[in-house]
Amino acid sequence: MTIEDIKKLLRNYKAQEKKLTEIKERYTTLREKLISPQAQVITDMPLNQTFNKNKILEILLAGRGADLTYLRDRIIKDLNDVAPAILMKTYSQIAKRAAQGAAFIANGLLGGEFEPIIRNLRIKEASGSILDDIFIPFDKDKLISDLD
């Protein structure tokens, strides 16, 4: 091994170390903004007819981030006080994850294997649309005159 080879190895090591540091920083931000508040909501949620925190059997992890070992392990550790977190089986090598999620929802809505999850999400009781809260200001008079 030459000195150039050693220098190259050190540069690669430093680049990998920098990437790991970035991942750790991003996870810390994610944890502060998303995971900790969600876990707090679950543990503080009052018992009622539709939700009982003592009945949470598991938390399912899905998506590209769940494949990152560091991220997945930290999320599992952080949610351990709430319930065991497990990685959902994925078919992403043959389909996009969004398509997989849509298929799981469709399966559950039709009473299939994922029906208990869909029932828990209360999707059938949902109303409105994602477009309901979008407001685009416009000049009504100008719009009408443009249509004429």
In short:
Helices cover 55% and strands 4% of the residues. The protein contains five helices and two strands; from the N terminus they run αβαβααα.
Overview of the structural elements:
This protein is mainly alpha-helical and 148 residues long. It has 2 domains: 1-88, no CATH class; 92-126, no CATH class. The protein has helices spanning 3-44, 69-79, 97-109, 115-121, 140-147; strands spanning 59-61, 85-87. A two-stranded parallel sheet has the order 1-2. Helix 2 links the parallel strand 1 and strand 2. Helix 3 packs across helix 4. The model has no long low-confidence stretch (mean pLDDT 77).
Characteristic key phrases:
mainly alpha, 2 domains, 4% strand, extended
Helix/strand layout:
Elements: H1 3-44, E1 59-61, H2 69-79, E2 85-87, H3 97-109, H4 115-121, H5 140-147
Parallel strand pairs: 1-2
Helix pairs in contact: 1-2, 3-4
- Number of structurally distinct domains: 2
Measured between the Cα atoms of the first and last residue, the distance is: 79 Å
Q: State the order of secondary-structure elements, H for helix, E for strand.
A: HEHEHHH
Roughly what fraction of the amino acids lie in strands? under 5%
What is the 3D form?
extended
Give the averaged pLDDT, no decimals. 77
